[in-house]
Amino acid sequence: MEILSRILRGIHQQSQVSYHPKCGKLGLNHLIFVDDLMLFVKGDTPSVQAITSSLDSFALLSGLHANLEKPNIYMAGIRDNIKQEILTVTVYTEGLFPFRYLGVPLNAGKLNKTMFTDLIAKVQKVLNHWSTYKLSYAGKEKNTHSESWRSILLVRDELLNMGGNGPAAERLLSGCVKKGCIQLSLLYDKFRRKGNPISWGATVWHRAVLPKHSVFLMLVMQQKLATIDKLNHRGISLVNRCVLCKADNETHKHLFFQCIFSTAIWHQVLHWLRMQHRTSKLSKEVHWIAGKKVRKHWKAQWFSSCLGATVYSLWEERNLKIFQGLEHDIDYVVKRIQYFVSIRLLSVNSPSKEGEIIGSLNA
Ligand SMILES: [Zn+2]
């Protein structure tokens, strides 16, 4: 059908072919719905000939021919002699207005109420059918075809729970209306489950942190990594020794940041940011980054970015050693963290401004 559309769009390159007066602004000369094709063109012989011959071109290319038992040509607002001329150059028979397509009446002039009588009767019949169901889950069980009905009932119950009664629920909904329209963001905020705010959210989900680092940092904050102590706890027998320092057991607390290796890296990263700081456990580091001292720092957002990159790189380094037997020295890991942070900051902030800062840090 894409080919047919291209052929039909191409006919207007010929100067004698004009759009239908109501379709010119849209550049529209056809609509395709399932296997129905509707063509629109100005009521003159060259335009009608061009659009019908384009169907022949398509038939030659594809082998698909129009069903000549069905086609009708509908004409309005043109003189009888032109109508006759058009009918002689086409194989179509003239259809008469008004007619129905998919149950909807179509007319050359204004549509009046009587044309919709059948449609209104059909809609009323459907609505009457619905009203025989009680507005309850029991009613829904009979109406097994309507999943959306169940969803509507769930939303209704949720609203009533939140409001306490009908009028209160109505007030709650009206609070989400701005300039006569429901604001989806306000509605979502009313319905979403709200837990207690987490203290580390602002640092972990900071825009300066690479998204994959944010997700990883969240897992670390929730102690969700499969560290060796956790695997032992699940019955997996492994020697519990931190592969980064070989001096202590591997736990979340040790890796971030009691381990000599990880502490050394975090120190170097902070040194890169021109910051002296006594390293503590991860939760305290996050708290420190959110605190006043860092907030006043000349580039506060770099700290969140650095923390995310550091935690991620440490876990990468740990996995590299366990699964591939490879290792990098501290300088290599720090440079990799600096690379991650620089790329992220350049992408979310002004490249020229951040570029100057990166230059001064690396000087
Ligand atoms: Zn260690």
Summarize the structure.
The chain is mainly alpha-helical and 363 residues long.
Instruction: Quickly give the structural class.
Output: mainly alpha
Shape: elongated
Q: Unreliable segments (pLDDT under 50, ≥5 consecutive)?
A: none
Helix content class: 40-55%
Give the strand tally. Answer: 8
Order of helices and strands: HEEHEHEEEHHHHEEHHHHHHHHHHH
How many structural domains? 3
Which key phrases capture this entry?
6% strand; mainly alpha; two-stranded antiparallel sheet; 55% helix; binds zinc ion; 363 residues; two-stranded parallel ribbon; 3 domains
Structural account:
The structure is a single chain. The chain has 363 residues and is mostly helical. It has three domains: 2-96, no CATH class; 133-191, no CATH class; 201-362, no CATH class. The chain has helices at 2-10, 45-62, 80-89, 117-131, 137-142, 147-163, 166-174, 184-191, 201-204, 211-221, 228-233, 252-255, 260-272, 282-290, 292-295, 301-324, 330-348, 351-362, and strands spanning 30-33, 36-39, 72-73, 93-94, 99-101, 104-106, 177-178, 181-182. Helix 10 crosses helix 16 (301-324), helix 13 (260-272) packs antiparallel against helix 16 (301-324) and helix 16 packs across helix 17 (330-348). The protein binds zinc ion. Zinc ion binds next to loops.
